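Question (not urgent): is this output format expected?
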Amino acid sequence: MKYFLTFSLLAGMALNIQSQDFYSTQRASWLRKAEANKPSLFETIKQPVGLVTIEEDSRAFQGWAVKPKSPVAELYKKSFKAQSGVVVDFGEHLTGYYSLTLKPIQGTSDAPLRLKLTFGEVPSELVTPFDPYPGTLSRAWLQDEIVTITELPATLTISRRLAFRYVKLELLGSSPFFDFAITGMSCKATTSAITQPAPLKEGTSNLIREIDRIGLATLKECMQTVYEDGPKRDQRLWIGDLYLEALANTYSFKNHELTRRCLYLLAGLSNKNGFLFSNVFETPEPHAQEGAPFLFDYSLLYNVSLKDYLVATHDKETALDLWPLAKKQIENATTYLTPEGIFDHTQAIKDRWWLFVDWNDKLDRQAAIHGIIIYSLKQTYELAKMLGKENELEHVPGLIKKFTAAARKNLYDKKAGVFVSGAERQVSYASQAWMVLSGVATQAEGQKALKQVMTLPDVVKPGAPYLYHYFIEALLQSGLKTEAKQLVSDYWGGMVNKGADTFWEVYDPSNEKTFAL
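Got this back:
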């Protein structure tokens, strides 16, 4: 009986420890600081610039081209009943709240009006039926609204925030005994980015200038009260988007308070075991996406974001405040290793870790994640040294050396001059990028691998701009500046040439149907 009671007591203590909140003394403070750094949104009222038609054109992106039709004043002059189906162009991509004003022009409004409004970022959205809907994400993300107006005159504002350039307006129902007109419309565009970035140097090519302009517009619209994954869909904060958007912000808008808010918000909403959720929501009150699988590579990139923030701002107080969280994230670095010392991606998946790296489903992620682990360990150790905390990470230099040696032994095909991943020894852009960024490859090896991978016919390419960023960063780190500039011109320039107003989340130059806004 004595042993049974002792065992029960120990088990109860263990259960109690496990159920305790790892950051119980810090969580409330972190959330208060996140709220204190919540930015005010800068609002601009935008007006449409004209009416357009959308016509089939095999030379245009996705087969649809926009043609100017008439000034927008033509819409306001006459009955809307004769203009149903008109497409209005705001002349630029906007994120904000759309308003529409109507008035009676003949008779008495004796019945409600019903309108359908479809908002599009690219022309194809306005001519391709949304239903039947074939997608796996919520149909509700698509930007169409059916509205009923019971009294005229009236001004209607769509309650949800929209991201669009074009609006298609259709009349679904009205009384034959009165007539009406649309007399105005506008969009209240919002962003927390209010400074003007420095201009590019004289002599910069027109294409690079356009890439820069559209890139800044994309970032500006994603900078709301957090760095959003996208202002149209998935309107929330993800760690991976925080990392790249904050990095771009440092060299453009310099809104470091927004970065600080995001770092604190993620920290305050971390799980009770001390690890970060991949994404969080702001409303109706701050909360994480409970039940979703944890994203392995994103949790490690948080530390890089914190270190970059410290470098940009010298805000040591914030970095010290969040240091316990950063130190906790790298505990997973040694959790999943094969006997050879390589990241065991199959076991991590079995344990419900989400391994992202890129949207390409064909990608074997073993080598890339192994590289991200090394990269994060190095960046976290640099952060520790900046904070005078390197004594707390005395084991990390040894881990870096061990993981690097294992990668060179097991993942480098010296004969082919490239890094491979998984049982099938897959060759991909992702593997080369992260083996270079992590420092596994020497500069000579990195140059050879990066050049080689761009010539292989069956290589697994990036599925989205997210991974292309890391590949271009690897090119720059390897001294391949000409190749990096050419890839930026080809990939992002390709979107420019296809009429992009903001850069797309998923873009495959060889398949325009593989595309997400």
